[in-house]
Amino acid sequence: MPASPVDLTNTKILITGPTGQVALPVVEHYAKIADVYTLARFRKAEDRARIESLGAKVLQGDLADESSLNIVPEDIDYVLNFAVVKSGDFKYDLAANAEGVGNLMTRCRAAKAFLHFSSTAVYEYCGQEPRAENAPLGDNHRVMFPTYSISKIAAETVCRFVARQRKIPTTIARLSVPYGDNGGWMYFHMLMMQQGIPIDLHPDKPNYYNPLHSDDYIEKIPYLLGAAATEATTVNFGGSQKVSIEEWCAYITELTGFEPSFKDNAKAFGSLCIDLEKMHELIGETKVDWRDGIRRQLDNLAPELLR
Question: Residue of 11, 23, 125, 299 with fewest CB within 10 Å of its CB?
């Protein structure tokens, strides 16, 4: 059954991880229509200044430190949890990512809905088979980010537990490959192509994903909040188009003339496309064509490199 979008106009929203590439466009968009609070460690003065320049309020805290969250207003209407720590230290990363979700939800237990952004990195690798929400979980990203997949799985578990115990309507959205005008995986591939650096590919090709443009995830956030339930709603969240690394690198070649150098690596992430049946039923299809999204990205970040 399709979710009814919530109206976020003039509401009080808390956004964690606001300085990251994924969350920053969300802060910029919703600060124009709502009372947005942002929570992060804010160790750099320029990060604080940038967020404040968008019209959002800055709260300095650490999800791993429950006492530091007392700064968060208790009357937050909606929480968008983008925060993620990838230090490589299991003790701290599990405290920040998993226990941190529990700390945050407990502080914001009066919220109308809690939206936790997880990752498709929770799925066990199984070739090119699209992963549905009930697919086996595994330590997918161990090679590059030792704590990442395990932390994400642990965070989802804590999130479901607290949602049920505290009766907090919750959605867990497993992000595929988020990107936008401000960056993403494709931009890094373009830089590697420009510099002649080999791009690792899993030998079981093509390497498929579901890139999700910031325009689309911003537009879908009210629907994901509308789908929230105390028995947390878990849903894949990616672009409706399945695209391979090989395809988007070929398109970058069309745009820039840079040729990719691919290197087979059995330890590379491998194909991680997702089954979108539940997502389409709940929140509908995405709109941004991946080619348009990549062209916009390069036009914004490196216009001088376009043909």
Answer: 299
